[in-house]
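seq:
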Amino acid sequence: MAKTIKRIQFDPPGQIEIFYVEDGSTEWQKFISDADYQEFLLERQTEIDNGVPPAPTPNWVGFNTAMFQNAAYNRIRSNTSNQLDGGRVEALALSLAAGVPFNMQIFAVLWNNTIAGSETPPTAEEAAGWRAIASTNNMPFTYNQSGLIEVS
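struct:
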């Protein structure tokens, strides 16, 4: 599905924000300088010229729903000694579903800390289930055999 520009805003002076709609959800991109904006336009035009399909949009709502219903996830989440990081991961996942941008590396570190604090680490089969959930929902990361997140 193509991105439809909803609004372009030039505020504060010298910054450009583009709000667009894709798959029914509003997203935004902020440019600090005109050079950043020109680079963005050049990248998009190159993708169009080369016939590169746009990257699929992550389905955070679907991902969150599947993970919150997953028995292995709930076991890890309830028995980790890193409850604070586990709670932060959940809060960030919900924020991402609402369209709030966030650094995936930090998301991965928080999740990996949650796994590290677990009394019973996930099995390879459980990690494969999480990998399938991530893949199905177009997440910008995957889970390795140990259940740790690896950012794409």
